[in-house]
Amino acid sequence: MKREKKIEKFGFFNVDKPSGIVSSAVVNKIKWLSGVPCGHMGTLDPLASGVLPVGVGNATRLFDYFLEKEKVYVAEFTFGVDSDTFDSTGNLVYGGHVPDEKEIEAVLPTFFGDIMQVPPKYSAKNVNGKRGYDLARAGIDFELAPKKVHIYGMELLGRKEESEDTYLIKIRCGGGTYIRSLARDIAAALDTKAVMSALRRTQSGIFILQNALPFDFFTQDPSLEELEKYLIPTETVLPFEDLILTERESEKLFNGQRVKTDALDGLYKIYKDGGFYGIAEVVNGLAKAKTKLC
Question: Do 30 and 79 fall into the same domain?
Fold first, then answer.
C-alpha cells in the first residue's frame, strides 16, 4: 500500500542500521515512507551495523561525489577460525593460533596506504552478469580480481571483554574496502586464520554515528512532517563552495550553456530561485552545470 502523499524535499537521512538486516530493507522502508525513490551510499553487510546514509529523491544523483570519502569502522576479528564468507555467518572451521596484541600491532602498519585486496566471493561483486554471492551459494567456482583500496590507518583497541580470541580494531579506510577481507589478510600475515565477527561503521564521510537516527524511528511510521524534520539538506553535506553568478549568467548556465567565470577550476554548488539546484564544474574559466537536481 502506497502513501497518498510524498515528501516534497530531497536530501539525506543518516540512519543507524541495526545488525541482522540488509541495507536494502532500510532503503525500502524509507522509500515507502517518503513516497519517492531512495538509495543508500555504501552497503553494509547484514552482520554490520552503524552509519548508512540514505539519499532521498534527487539527492541520489550525487552519490558519485561521495565515493572517495573516508569511512571509519570498529571491527571485531576473531582469530583461530576460518569461514567461507570471511565472517562469523559462514561455515566455520576452527584451527590456527591466536596472536597476542604485540603481534597484531606489529603487522597492522603493513596494510596502511594503497593495497591490493581480493573481495570475498560472498559479496555483491558482479561476475559475468551475476552476483558473487549467488554463484558461491550455487557452488560454482570462480575467482575475483584484486582491487586497489586505501587504508588510512588502523588502531588495535584491545581484546573484546571476556574473550581470549577476539580483538577490536578501529579502521579508517576509503570507499570499497572489504573489512572481511582485511580480517583474512591480517590473519594470513600472522600465519593464522580469522573472521570478522562484528562490525560497526561510525563514520561515512560527513555522516557520523553520533547524529544517526535509529532505524526504530522509521519502523514507527512517522508522518511526512516528522520525516522532513530530520532530513539533512543536500547542499549541507557537499564540501563545495557556492558559485556566484549574475542573473543572466545563471540563466545561461541553467539552459546548458557555458559561462565565463573568475572562479578556480573545480566543483561548485549552484542555486536557482533561492533553492539548491545542483553542481557546476569550472574548467579553464568556463562553468557548466554538471549535475542538476531540479
Answer: no
Does the residue 4 lie in any domain?
no
Name the amino acid, one letter, at 201. R
pTM for this entry: 0.90
In one letter, which amino acid is 116? M
pLDDT value at residue 25: 96
Same domain? 85 vs 101: yes
Considering the domain architecture, whether residues 198 and 258 belong to the same structural domain is answered as no
> Catalytic site residue 45?
yes
Give the residue from 86, 68, 85 showing the smallest Cα distance to 148. Answer: 68
Domain hosting residue 253, numbered range: 240-292
Selecting among 45, 82, 165, 185, the annotated active-site residue is 45
**pLDDT reading at 33 higher than 90:** yes
